[in-house]
Amino acid sequence: MTDIAALTDALQQSSRVVAFTGAGISTESGIPDFRSPGGIWTRYDPMDFTFDRFIGSAEVRERSWQMRREFFETMPEPNAAHHALARLDAGERMLGVITQNIDGLHQLAGSTNVVEIHGTARDVMCIGTAPQAGTPAGCGFTQTHQWALARVDAGEADPACPHCGGLLKSATISFGQALDPGVMEQCAAMAAQADLMLAIGSSLQVYPAAGIPVEAKQSGARLAIINNEETPLDDLADIVMVGRAGEILTNAIENMASAAS
Ligand code: NAD
Q1: How far is the CA of 180 from the centre of ligand 1 (A)?
Q2: Sign (positive/negative) of CA torsion 55, 59, 65, 71?
Q3: How confident is the model at residue 240 (pLDDT cuts 50, 70, 90)?
Q4: Whose CA is nearest to atom 8 of ligand 1?
Q5: CA dihedral 151, 68, 28, 112 (to 10 degrees)
Q6: What is the rounded CA–CA span in Å between residue 114 and residue 94?
Q7: What would the pLDDT profile of 56-90 be if each residue is shown by its tens digit?
């Protein structure tokens, strides 16, 4: 494990920082990752919500709306780690944030260029009357999750698109649903331009997303991994910090601020 001074130095020497974030950056906001005990994923099996099962079963869709309700019940707020990245952004050191998360917390904290590989749970979209995994061709209707959950509360357990009668789904990429090639190209371009890649709160086991920090390293960026357990990419990294993302990032940013004053 590296010490906080090495992370602070790397941040100070960098002007094109890209953060790659996973579920672990949001656990301090109260949103469990897939592995934590007692979280929503112990009551809902994520594999229950594969794209095929979602489009094939009204009962699965009804449960998925209930799961969304739980996801947003506590109205999670950005935590110290999201705020630290937003502070780096304001200091014009960040190229952007690439996130696997669907919670929208980076934007709420104030990060400006956020690429959401798996979409966002804050919106819902029409996926059409006969959707297929690779091409969910909806009519283009989108709305907020609050709008959809209000309809669920009003008695529509599986609300339909008000324009075309198609299925409505949270604007996220489900298991079994293709990633957006345009979004992945955007990630590759950011990784290629980065001089420092921060991989934060990700088990770095889910590909192709976990390939993004590898691409950055291969393009010449330094790689720093901040996670509260080891990852398979630790050997590739220049800096490995094991611990809580909020505390580590806040300390590094405070150190930078003290050095500057
Ligand atoms: P993961 O659950 O596989 O890994 C999360 C990692 O973060 C783990 O290694 C864990 O030890 C670590 N971690 C947990 N709390 C931490 C903390 N406070 N500080 C530092 N590290 C911490 O998550 P993943 O790699 O993102 O992949 C799983 C998939 O789950 C992603 O595709 C993501 O879209 C989805 N997911 C998203 C959310 C969300 O939007 N908040 C929540 C759950 C799952």
Answers
A1: 21
A2: negative
A3: very high
A4: 203
A5: -70
A6: 11
A7: 999 999 999 988 888 777 778 999 999 999 999 98
